[in-house]
Design a protein that fits this description.
single chain, alpha+beta, Immunoglobulin-like
Length: about 210
């Protein structure tokens, strides 16, 4: 084998190794391929333990229990006042406690984040008309930092609600009972791997 042939062989081997290493870093480590693949979800509105549920805006949706109570009140008109007061107690009703629109950070982001509650203390964070870029290790954070804060502040003091279920579509995340939303007022789509925010939304009480 000539010197030229041996040299060419080593160059080809080295090139293949470099290409393989670059591909491994891009796909396995940096997750570049996720930018070109959308994960679409379409979750129905959350169902609360109280059985108060909603499909979209639920403040004007009557639950089965409420309807039954109204029917009973109409039928049993001679119930003693003390007992009737108990029967007429309204069932839990789902309302929007806070909401805010997503703004771009390191990537485009759109949609609305809503805090849904039924008055029992249980709350869900729901995304409507949501869309952002896909990426590796995306999580949903509640942060004390403002939506326009430097990216490094978003993970200084935060509550992790879990992995982002999809970069497109409506989805729900249960909020811990002890989460103080007067402090954790910003929703952040956070890339754990690279420490950047894809988008953020300020939760404003309604």
């Amino acid at each position: 084998m000539s010197w030229f042939t041996r040299t060419r062989t080593w160059i080809l081997i080295a090139t293949a190794l470099v290409v393989g290493a670059v591909a491994f870093l891009a796909f396995a480590v940096f997750g570049i391929h996720t930018l070109f693949i959308d994960d679409e979800v379409d979750e129905a509105a959350p169902v609360f333990d109280s059985n108060a549920s909603t499909s979209g805006l639920a403040s004007d949706v009557m639950t089965t229990e409420q309807a039954a109570e109204i029917d009973q009140a109409m039928i049993d008109t001679e119930t003693p006042p003390s007992e009737q007061a108990s029967d007429d107690m309204p069932a839990p009703e789902v309302v929007i406690e806070a909401s805010g629109s997503f703004v771009d950070r390191s990537h485009p982001a759109a949609g609305v984040a809503q805090v849904l509650g039924d008055g029992t203390g249980q709350r869900f964070l729901r995304f409507e008309d949501f869309e952002t870029d896909n990426g590796p290790d995306l999580n949903v954070y509640l942060s004390t930092a403002a939506p326009d804060a430097p990216a490094g502040e978003f993970n200084d003091d935060f509550i992790d609600l879990g992995d982002l279920k999809g970069n497109i579509g409506p989805q729900n995340y249960e909020i811990p009972l002890d989460a103080d939303l007067s402090q954790y007022q910003t929703v952040v789509i956070w890339c754990v791997r690279f420490g950047v925010a894809f988008g953020a939304a300020e939760l404003v009480p309604t």
